[in-house]
From TrEMBL:
Primary subcellular site in the record, as a coarse category: cytoplasm
A GO biological process held by the record: cysteine biosynthetic process from serine
Keywords carried by this UniProt record: Acyltransferase, Amino-acid biosynthesis, Cysteine biosynthesis, Cytoplasm, Repeat, Transferase
Protein source organism: Rhodoblastus sphagnicola
Compartments it resides in: Cytoplasm
Recorded metabolic or biological pathway in which this protein acts: Amino-acid biosynthesis; L-cysteine biosynthesis; L-cysteine from L-serine: step 1/2
Xref: InterPro entries: Hexapep (IPR001451), Hexapep_transf_CS (IPR018357), LbH_SAT (IPR045304), Ser_AcTrfase_N_sf (IPR042122), Ser_O-AcTrfase (IPR005881), Serine_acetyltransferase (IPR053376), Trimer_LpxA-like_sf (IPR011004)
Domain of life per record: Bacteria
EC number: 2.3.1.30
Protein name: Serine acetyltransferase
Main enzyme class: transferase
Catalytic activity reported: L-serine + acetyl-CoA = O-acetyl-L-serine + CoA
Length: 249
């Protein structure tokens, strides 16, 4: 983050940030073929280019021009990034549609967001009210991270999760509200690339349902066994009563 801030403070650094934003797409999107195609056809790249310009204006006190530029960006890309948000190097929004990043959000280097992600606030009180994402964080499609909380470096947030508490570095969090389900397997990540094995993210709800079904099956088997024993005992008792009646007769 400090490196990104220092780069954005210098006009020459803006070109380097744009170059890195474009270059990182090839490492994270298998569909990306070349820099020219990325620059022309990726709305997430367009959004970060516009944002870095708007953020420069915001830092220099030109608040209205910055907001107007971010509004144009939202119209063109369907990505809403407040010009006050601080975003590090090599930032990638895949697909772009519906992403919202609030004013006091802070995003580290090498972060990847998928479509529909919200970095939002939960208070109308001025001051820090949006999340802070560490370096290398990956946020799945539709996830919401709300409030002035921290998501540690290298953490992964599952699709459609709602995060309202801090997430430690290097873990995977899923669900509503999000819960930590496992530590990140560093061996699954290639050099310079993002681990895209979303299908390997655990399903805590499914696991709980599976345990409940196993428990129901066990209880049903036990009940059937008890009913069978009861019928056997009842049959034996009837046989004894009939035998006693025959002896008495």
């Amino acid at each position: 983050m400090p490196a990104a801030n220092a780069a954005e403070a210098r006009p020459a650094g803006l070109w380097r940030l744009w170059r890195d934003d474009i270059a990182c797409v090839k490492a994270r999107d298998p569909a990306a073929r070349n820099a020219f195609e990325i620059l022309l056809t990726y709305p997430g790249v367009h959004a970060i280019i516009w944002h870095r310009l708007a953020h420069q204006l915001w830092r220099r006190g030109a608040k209205f021009p910055a907001r107007f530029l971010s509004w144009i960006c939202r119209l063109l890309t369907n990505v809403d990034i407040h010009p006050g948000a601080t975003i590090g190097q090599e930032f990638f929004i895949d697909h772009g549609a519906g992403v919202v990043i609030g004013e006091t959000a802070e995003v580290g280097d090498g972060v990847t967001l998928y479509h529909g992600v919200t970095l939002g606030g939960v208070s109308w009180t001025p001051g820090k009210r949006h999340p802070t994402l560490g370096d290398g964080v990956l946020v799945g499609a539709g996830a919401k991270i709300l409030g002035p909380i921290k998501v540690g470096a290298g953490a992964r947030i599952g699709a459609n999760s709602v995060v309202v508490e801090e997430v430690p570095p290097g873990v995977t969090a899923v669900g509503i509200p999000a819960r930590i389900v496992r530590a990140l397997d560093r061996r699954a990540i290639g050099s310079g690339r993002v681990n895209l094995d979303h299908h390997l993210i655990p399903d805590p709800v499914g696991e709980v349902l599976s345990l409940l079904l196993d428990r129901v099956a066990f209880l049903e088997a036990r009940l059937n066994h008890m009913q069978a024993r009861g019928k056997k005992n009842e049959h034996e008792q009837l046989e004894e009563e009939r035998f006693d009646d025959e002896r008495a007769g």
